[in-house]
């Protein structure tokens, strides 16, 4: 198969796009469920709203139509273009709670407690200040005379009277709870000639009554006395809840004939919201008029005719709470943020399963990966948010219907791009899906709660500075909450968010913050991903390129290479060959490792671990180099460095003339990898895997189809529909064969195979060896294995790796000749003849060494230079003539014997060193 060169940017993007579309097509219902999540949540919100409406509709209402002229409009959702005119009233205590003489108050000017039995206790107002005579003069001007009213011109005539009520005010002045047939309105007079006398009065269609009550103004010598009397008069916890309430109090302070200076006490203990403030204007009017009469005479006054609320538009649900608008910021913050864990876990999953790196090893660049992945997440996010807005509008949520859709679209579009960028940035901090899932969902719910109970309060706080709000909005979750909060407020006001409202609501600054942050976060995330994947330092651009020449071979030699005995002449020769190739500046060889070293830092008090000790290696094209070694010898660390998973501690390697420390992204374009563990997508078939990696190798059209079919046939995955089964249903051996096929597709220049035949049955193993043997003709292959048979069949040269160092190198025949200068003689007899057998062997070869002994079976290593094969046969004939020989054998040294001998010797040597 011919090499098709490096795939272009768009060819890589096309390969990844096709793979992702295939992958998503197989999990289409998962995506559909994700997009439908907003529908279910909106339906939940609608169900709660309908439940509240249903319960509220069972409660009798005073208003049944927006055409009604009743005054109870404040609780309806009808528009009020012309709010009613209402008489201003004082808030006064109930008759049984008004101030009287008491043992805990030292004042004798209060009325006797007997007035409570007759219901004639006066309404008491306290006065103090710096000028008692002025205060007493004003006291006589505060309350009016007898009640008189002109029904044809009601409100102006009522203004001549001082009205009060024991009923708490409402939150606004669209109506007044005091105007009700069940409760009297009190006319406060200086002296009630007819105590408890009542007069009928009608406001619109509501009939009520006015009752006379005396107003009593009492002087106190200081504001401290007033404060003490008011404090003691409030409810003291007795079972009857009897109180000694003062209606109000004035501190005239430094008031004189040129200056009115007054402080007013008013009672807000029993009220919520702004209700008490509705009653305060009448207190201000009374003292102002009393002062005016004092200056200009009793005929001068300013009439306080009525109070009137501002007009309002229709509210939602006929006065019932609109849950979507009230709880929208919290609820929809959670809804939109639910996308964040989905995106983040997807990115971390590819990182955890090393799917991203295996794609990169086969030539996928960072640019195509980012473009296609970002586009996919953006499309999913757009569909998700669009379904939220569409479903919410369809079921009638004013939160979506009132606010301009264009404003919502721009806001959500900017935010979801920011959210995707943050997910890419956050994915660089995590490597485990379980960890990132927990963290992401904590962030989702934590952000919603903090936004609602902290950030929302700060937005509404007039004392919190605007720059503080802007600083908090730099956190994307709070920026989302702020936008949803403004949509909610606009929906509650009934006017909706329009483009012209952006400046007044702060949305314009929010759009600017999110847009700038989107691009900054995206650039930072791409940069961090680039430096981490390329093996460069985070601040590599600050480092000046060094002009110091590279050290000579002698200078670069490490302490691990200083002691080289004569038995390692092959390793020495390999090092010298590499040094010579580096001096010449052009290798012409596929792989050259120059003093490659990897040291893992020590942890928990343990010393650093040297995994690879100054490795020198040259592998030309067309050669399969086998790395043998015990577990933990450093073979996988070496492969990981060569494939970019690990960065070398020192030294380097050249692949097709490219430095793995500087040009790893270019190295990937000519490389194939069969990792130790299969890195596959469980839902993709074997054919789809090969199509994807084939496109990454720039194979197109019919050539791609042919290459895929040949690869599948070569590894016995073509027949029986196996090629079109999901890889998740493959056996371990089938996955291994697919991994080998992936590493070889596209005829890469360099291939790394880490134990490729692990888990295969003998027939499949033999077939796989044939495939690798055929592929190495134009490819340099580095293969690690524990199978001596596999090494002998496939490898042109072998290197035995022990404790991080290469201890011998050569073809299998050379290694057997160098390290296997002995015959292995085995004989099995009865146990009583063991000594006789050993004596016979010593007579033939004095330096023979017994290496195995068990129940009559003995094994000896006989030096080849001491005996001839005919001597051994003669020994066997003599033994058979003297006793029974159950079995015997003579064999040359195997590669396994060589491996065992070199590994044992090297470990002893390293221990002694």
TrEMBL record:
PANTHER family hit by this protein:
ABC TRANSPORTER A FAMILY MEMBER 10 (PTHR19229:SF237), ATP-BINDING CASSETTE TRANSPORTER SUBFAMILY A ABCA (PTHR19229)
**Pfam families noted in UniProt:** ABC2_membrane_3, ABC_tran, ABCA12_C
Where is this chain's protein located in or outside the cell? Membrane
* GO cellular component assignments: membrane
Query: Which PROSITE patterns does this UniProt record tie to the protein?
Result: ABC_TRANSPORTER_1 (PS00211), ABC_TRANSPORTER_2 (PS50893)
The record's family statement is: Belongs to the ABC transporter superfamily. ABCA family. CPR flippase (TC 3.A.1.211) subfamily.
Q: Which Gene3D superfamilies match?
A: P-loop containing nucleotide triphosphate hydrolases (3.40.50.300)
ABC transporter domain residues are: 591-828
Transmembrane stretches in the record are 34-52, 326-349, 369-397, 409-431, 438-455, 467-485, 506-528
Query: What membrane topology does this protein have?
Result: Multi-pass membrane protein
| MF (Gene Ontology) | ABC-type transporter activity; ATP binding; ATP hydrolysis activity; lipid transporter activity
Instruction: Tell me the InterPro entries matching this sequence.
Output: AAA+_ATPase, ABC2_TM, ABC_transporter-like_ATP-bd, ABC_transporter-like_CS, ABCA, P-loop_NTPase
In terms of SMART domains, this protein maps to:
AAA
Species this chain originates from: Microthlaspi erraticum
The secretion signal range is: none
Indicate where this protein is primarily found: membrane
Q: Does the keyword Transmembrane helix apply?
A: yes
Instruction: State the name under which the record lists this protein.
Output: ABC transporter domain-containing protein
